[in-house]
């Protein structure tokens, strides 16, 4: 009974996706077949009928971006990448789903698999990343396009699920996307009314469509997303026709569609169907093909994407050639930016300071750096989560990024730290050389930690600008005063945390951050609210090494004081007094654990010689993590309790961040 | 021109609130006058006309709860507490706003100021706490009330602002509150269309009312919240009449109302008005009173709250006496629970295990503990953020907490980790002895970190149940595998993190967690996904000490292996091999840094003698923080990079969590 041959070509393609997902999960004995089975039609239609991409050049600049926000359904994406001819996913890769060193990990990872734009899995991140991708497109289009020549012109498509829509981050991102009117953002909501706990009736009965309307989105509904292919196509067509609002298409589907006993149950969400049920599903859908076998007709049809893709890219290359001929200056700027190269001598704008210069908060120095860098780095774009004038992140003269004003570079994220994080990640991962920055108070990294972690994991070159970096914050009190925050961020792999001590070190921090952004590495900068004196001995080069000597004695020190940020000057002042008292003291500025760890052993030994065991760290934050540097015989001036509400200077003094206390602890160590 | 005397009594009261806020901020030269100035009318009406509370017994059980979610407007709350006669806030306290050791810190802190229910400031937390307070009320009412006797019966009122409504957490909380139909939750949205960056036009143009309708809320609008007192009162009255839905009243106000030049600007949000403007404001509102002077009529009117409060409480005590007479068993249970005392021998239900017992994941042991504890601790209530059957947190036989089924104790939070956190905090801070627990994968503490921190800061006795606690998670890959997560949580002050190694230690973890909950201290438990053998030497008592010896040698050890959780058995197995090879090795199980730090120096020395410097920690997580225990001469078996997608056993082996690698590192240390 060769039923399969009676299926339409489209059905063959869609069922190929379904069975690749089912078979891969079955072989891995792990994974999430349910979403790919239900969302296969919308995935097929997107990749086959709408999306412009070139499988043989996944990085082609003007491609439509696709984000699987419901990242657990990764097999949907891998199946589509394989079927449309990406070299990154072969049938063997699919057979190797979720195995060691495979290119088909459990959730889509942009750094593992070409064709995957962003790393998803933690729910809600993908839709917010997609907003960032759409922001990047809108900004570049507004910046570079000419009335007669559209250099930048692509859509951003997302598939998100019930889980994504329950997460607050998706609400934040959808609200700001609606505000911005990002018309080329099209989200398909896989409304399968099942999450891990069962029917969404147990916890999610809101009217999602109405909510998106409230955000200012254009909202559509496809009632039968399982088989009504024409309706899905029509909805996407309609979505494209509305250019001043993002569109959310609610596509009602059945999770695990095709499985006779498990469809529409939580059982098919995150586990293999089991051999018997797979057999029944094959019978149910009349599927005569072996595991991992794709009908030749389906494969050859979907592989037409390769030819289409080549032609899309050729067409764009021709547009680009015209652009280059007509607008050589803009083309050169565009090319330089896209290449990821920094302009020559960009860093010459970064100021340095001497002790004679006015004491200022490092957040003020950060503002200076951003404003010096903005003219030489047009790729710098960002803003704050509603703390612009506290974080001091406005780049003056570059306008506000708003609906219809997409060329502008100051982004108002609103009080939406988490979405800000994921949007910045999306802007960075657009792959167009943009360097996004996102700002809030250091303590509120807690609101956006998942996005910061993803910037580190997914190699998004974002600059996180965090101000009010200690209890020196003052009157706002313990809810606003970071204690453990620096430690908790330093612990994140691949994230460089820098806490500069003065103006020169702030410049050093930006020097590192910009360079790292170009190497697809995020940097988190922690700046003070309060004034700090400038030191003569600080240097940009010192910052690049993470820790360096800023005051020293002759010969081997008896004691090393290690300071960061606002506490470095306590160390240098204390050292002066100790030196005057005949002690041999070294002061090390340690703006970054991470950068110091990257130095060779000889350098580390030169800064913190093993023989010197009397070491005192001074940092207005938790002692957690400091024992690696102060050792078992050292000590810390730190705070391991929550702060208190009072003027910053009072709080600092009361909690022991004073020259007197540093001296007392130093003298105790010296014995 | 004694204009003030021409003001109505209500105006006098409202302007008293406004000027207390203005004068306090002016004196402190720090704070947020804008919100109190605009929200004074709604605050006044709530406290004067609707709320039932007893200023002389702020902890009176059946009081209406009030949450200022827009916590920066703390002076609104302090003014109301002072005016209505709470002893916790005197006029001197108000003069001492935001000063060291004052009872009027920058943001409302429940642990500093009686009458403040929860700690707010980080935006959006308060509205989610309020959902938790309403959950607690609904649950206790359903549990204890009788048709003829309402023992538990109060409202939860919240004032939230634009900032709260931009935060994702508030959307999550509002969605689930709508789902639950919490009719006694009434939120007043101070719609002043100004946030720190200026007009909400720059980032927040969604239709908030429509969004709340989409969540299933009853929504009202007061168009003139500045002066239309009757409309505010009517709206609250209407809100109370709708009993099957929470109500959101959008109250349109002017931030900084009364200030001639700064009203309706961001300038009045978070800074003192300045002497000149305060003077102009006094003229503008015809206010002839000195700073901090409250007109006698206003004070005496508002102080009627004291008499009212006494009578409310007396009335309730009488109800309670009847209840006690009619339903002595229920009254005894209620009394025991409210008192915060645990029932005798509650901990006898916690099982212990021997090496002969079956290897199981510690998450399975957690399930056993929860299900053993549920019958003896009726105050235990909680659930998971849509991972019930992965976290194994269902307490069987206790039903699902749902609309109209509020007596049930299994809460489905949906995929809303952040709201779950804040809701659990609210349940704990209801002060009725409830012990809430909230569960997700350990990695997703990143989504709810701000709420976990607030549990620690605000002394909310919550149990955080976190499973899939390492790269042993396996196939889901690096997005789902904690690396730095344990370190980042251990760094939070006042949060006890416990990572048990087997069944007995899981019981120990719950033993600590339940006891700490009663001491208003949160505990975070980290459980394995994968099977772990049971060890004979583990003990509940050992867990209570944070670290203890589970295998030892004669005399002074040459080497100490320190293991936690799933890696402890690697240590014991390696130690056996080393011992067989003639080495003197000790194994320390260290389920909790925090509990160990709380021990005295002698105990610490007995477990980790200073003389033994060859120490090796083994934990499938970041090395960050471990150097305090392994010292400069020790080493770690740890992972300081992101994980990978593959079966858990493979991932563990590949990243060095094997007996072989422990032996290799141990032998390197032994030299």
UniProtKB/TrEMBL annotation, chains A, B:
GO terms for molecular function: metal ion binding; transketolase activity. Residues 360-534 form the Transketolase-like pyrimidine-binding domain. GO terms for cellular component: cytosol. It comes from the Bacteria. CDD domains: TPP_PYR_DXS_TK_like, TPP_TK. One of its GO terms (biological process) is pentose-phosphate shunt. The record marks 32, 269 as: Important for catalytic activity. Binds 1 Mg(2+) ion per subunit. Can also utilize other divalent metal cations, such as Ca(2+), Mn(2+) and Co(2+). Binds 1 thiamine pyrophosphate per subunit. During the reaction, the substrate forms a covalent intermediate with the cofactor. The keyword Calcium applies. It catalyses: D-sedoheptulose 7-phosphate + D-glyceraldehyde 3-phosphate = aldehydo-D-ribose 5-phosphate + D-xylulose 5-phosphate. Mg(2+) binds at residues 162, 192, 194. Pfam families: Transket_pyr, Transketolase_C_1, Transketolase_N. Substrate binds at residues 32, 269, 363, 390, 468, 476, 480, 529. Its cofactor is Mg(2+); Ca(2+); Mn(2+); Co(2+). It is an enzyme of class 2 (transferase). Its EC number is 2.2.1.1. NCBIfam families: tktlase_bact. Belongs to the transketolase family. Catalyzes the transfer of a two-carbon ketol group from a ketose donor to an aldose acceptor, via a covalent intermediate with the cofactor thiamine pyrophosphate. This is Transketolase.
